[in-house]
Amino acid sequence: xxxxxxxxxxxxxxxxxxxxxAPAAEVTPEEYKEQVEPICKTDTEANEKILxxxxxxxxxxxxxxxxxxxxxxxxxxxxxxxxxxxVPKPSxxxxxxxxxxxxxxxxxxxxxxxxxxxxxxxxNAAQKMIVRLQSNATKTNNQVLxxxxxxxxxxxxxxI
Length: 160
Prior knowledge:
0% strand, mainly alpha
């Protein structure tokens, strides 16, 4: 009987080992960049269309229209964030890229907050949010300078 228990235990252990998937191949920083840049390119192109003329709308007092534009940009950035967060990160940069993704999420939240301020007609408060947007973009971009992103570099001052 003791031999039978040992064989059953060994068989169960062997089945557990075969059930554990083998670790996926490690992603290199270059491969990561190749995977995220198309996502960011799509977001950047969408934002160029969505935010076209937003600065002029704010200056002209068309705050509701500008608010809708910023809401659209926030929605597009949230969608991009969802896609970016699913891309496997190189293990050596995982912490830094996680911080970067947090900055991307914050950027979308700041777009939404700015849109809310504009919708309420609070132009001065919205301008303060724009300063925060730019500050957050700078911090976020600094997290990934080594990657030399072209499209994953956030530049809200380009639009607002």
